[in-house]
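hey all, quick one before standup. I had two proteins in the batch that finished overnight and I want to keep them in one place so we stop losing track of which output belongs to which input. First protein below, input sequence then structure tokens straight from the run.
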Amino acid sequence: MPSWEELYNELIAKAKRLGHNPAPARLRVLREELDHIDHRIRHEVPAGERRYELALLSQEADTFLTAAESRVQIARNVARAQREREAHDAAHPNILSPRSALADWTPDPIARAERNHREGSERDH
């Protein structure tokens, strides 16, 4: 049977491999695995320095899983906003969307500055 540290390190490695848009079901499984390990440690490892070190590993695993859950929420919000823009554009065909090619909108200020510099439309200061 692997040690507690190995269990946490394996869970942390799995959390690191989730990528930018992890599947919510996979996150749930990893969260349940973390909760199960934490529960076993609370009942099987006596209080002391080892339990404290295991708690730090638990916090690290929780941090990675929380970050992955945040990425899932961001991906959902971006997808929802895109659907809302598409619905708005379909409902109002005479109004240019800020995301349309005709509006020439660049959200990144650095990319916008580079484009303006290339096109010679940079403001003089």
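OK second protein, same deal, sequence then tokens:
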Amino acid sequence: MEDGTEGETLNHLGRQELHSYLPSSLNNDPNIIEFFGQLARFNQNAITNLFQIREDPLNPGRYYAIDATEFGTRAAGQIVSLDAPPSQNADQIAITYVTHRDTSGFNEDNQPPKPNHSGHYRDPLPLSDGTLIVAHTAETRADGPTGNANPSRYDFRLKTTKLLPNGFRGTDQPLTAGLNKTVSYWDPDKKLTYSGNLWELQPVEVKPRTRPAKLTNALPSPEQQVFQQLGIDMNALRVYLIENNLALAVTRNVTTRDGFDKQQPFNLRVPGGVQHVGAGGKIYDVQHLQIFQADQVRGIGGINNPKSGRRVLAKTLHDGNAVVSNMPNPAGPAGSVKIAADGSAAAFVPARRALSWQLTDPQGTPVVRERYWVTFQPGEVRVCTSCHGINNKDQAGQAAPTNQPQALLELLQYWKAQHP
């Protein structure tokens, strides 16, 4: 959503639908496997990353983006596209290679480029007249110094594209004659001067557009029914959340996972409660949802002489407002809430703070881990049906759960008693 609420995803697409290789989290359970293309899926064109996404104004729901290596090429690589209108299920979305796959990587300094490598591309922009323009450099190697005042091998220029004889697109004509300038800078105490063309990046199309309608997202029916059952005014809770810089995170059943995710345990059971089993073999008990918050406490350069600045380090949830708002969980690990018998979990969490979490067994040993940092907005109530979310069917062949979350009911009862 434009206000920062809800998960920032494109049709729930992720590594299970896009990547060519996925490592397994455990190596002592034959049900948990690495993925290297051996399982059938709709998308046959694997990618590694999806950067600089832009929607086609002539084909709403069609997106152009860049697949590039994580390091070395200034986020420049191969142009790809995908058709992902809001109603399209992630299991039925495929990647199209717009430029040749060779353009996604780079050749080493002592190696020739691959035969179909036409350079590195970034910032694709589909225009309303059907033209596709892009920032392009003909350099096929990783970026590096040139040995003079120019610190880069790359010379990004905005160009139109055309279809090449190999059936893929490449560059056609530059949009400018070059933005030539002379600049001087210090490195670190030596003055360097560069004369030449500047990079041309991040184009936009300037034209009249109709302002889109503001998106809204209503609380799903099962969770609404819990609020109604307890007689809690949703707006009153939102005021409390905003005043305390909190959000409310709810999952209906953490034992359900998307059927294609075989990289983490998926035979899951709440002791004395619900279970979902997708294969014979070991069943993992999950009792607690342990939450981590990103604290900027990690220095660079050692303990005695650290450099200025801090990086985030995952610390168990300790935000004061969140801790006092959540139900105590003395039997669980630090920063955790108990998973209810129906598999649901609910927690007040700090807003505007990167968070992650994991499911643990009754002793606090991790079982299933979240792979991303996730952020909530003040006053937000975010609902997930599962952990990992379901595209079509879960590991047991069932649809996404629709239960009224018992954990939400218990947490709101606790909150209501504290705030009569």
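Flagging for whoever picks this up: The chain has two domains: 42-197, 221-418. The chain is about 10% helix and 30% strand.
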